[in-house]
Design brief:
By secondary structure, the protein is of the alpha+beta class. It is built from 5 helices and 7 strands; from the N terminus they run βββαββαββααα. The mean pLDDT is about 90.
């Protein structure tokens, strides 16, 4: 069973949680309490099932800066016996937007048989890279993504969700190896290089 790490922004702490996000096996997952709260509210209000949330980062598979990798997106399904499913789905989509709990909900033509909703926890680093710029001292789900990718690429650091000194050392080594200046932050260009490297790494 996966371990779900949850970052609590209000308390700046990490803790493990047992929830319906445990839909994956043999992987370490992470999320944010704001997304878990939004999921719980949505599922309780409309009797939805969370059919997919966290999507693990794996070498050799195309990565597209998905909020699923950050544990910030969910795919939800209505009960099988639901009638007027399209009308009901659109009602739920409208509620997701008006509730203020979710930052983005995909329209029906993209997700015709399920509801995809996301929570944003940081400003994107560019219009092409929705992950934020992160610096030493930062904490949260995007630090987990950075650490996981660095470990996949052979630059070990502790999977802690905190941008600490060992993460910085691993980042310096990665940036030097791919010809980027050894700067101590992850911007849009570095994210693109890192995701590309993981996507083209040998599958394990």
């Amino acid at each position: 069973m996966a371990t779900l790490f949850v970052y609590s922004k209000s308390n700046d702490i990490f803790y493990t949680a047992s929830s319906s996000l445990h839909s994956i096996n043999e992987h370490t997952a992470w999320s944010d309490e704001r997304f878990i709260h939004a999921c719980n509210e949505l599922c309780a209000r409309f009797e939805l099932r969370l059919i997919r949330s966290f999507v693990p980062l794996l070498p050799g598979y195309p990565l597209h800066f998905s909020p699923h990798h950050a544990g910030l997106a969910g795919d939800f399904a209505l009960p099988d016996a639901c009638t007027n499913i399209i009308s009901r789905q659109n009602e739920i989509r409208r509620w997701c937007v008006s509730s203020g709990l979710f930052s983005y909900v995909q329209p029906q033509y993209i997700t015709p048989t399920w509801i995809h909703a996301e929570v944003s926890v940081a400003s994107p680093s560019s219009v092409f890279v929705p992950y934020p710029v992160i610096f030493p001292g930062n904490t949260g789900v995007h630090c987990f993504i950075l650490q996981k990718c660095l470990n996949i690429m052979g630059f070990p650091c502790l999977l802690s969700g905190r941008f600490t000194e060992d993460t910085l050392t691993a980042l310096y080594r990665f940036r030097t190896a791919i010809g980027l200046p050894p700067e101590g932050y992850v911007d849009a260009i570095c994210w693109q290089k890192l995701m590309s490297a993981v996507s083209t790494a040998p599958k394990r």
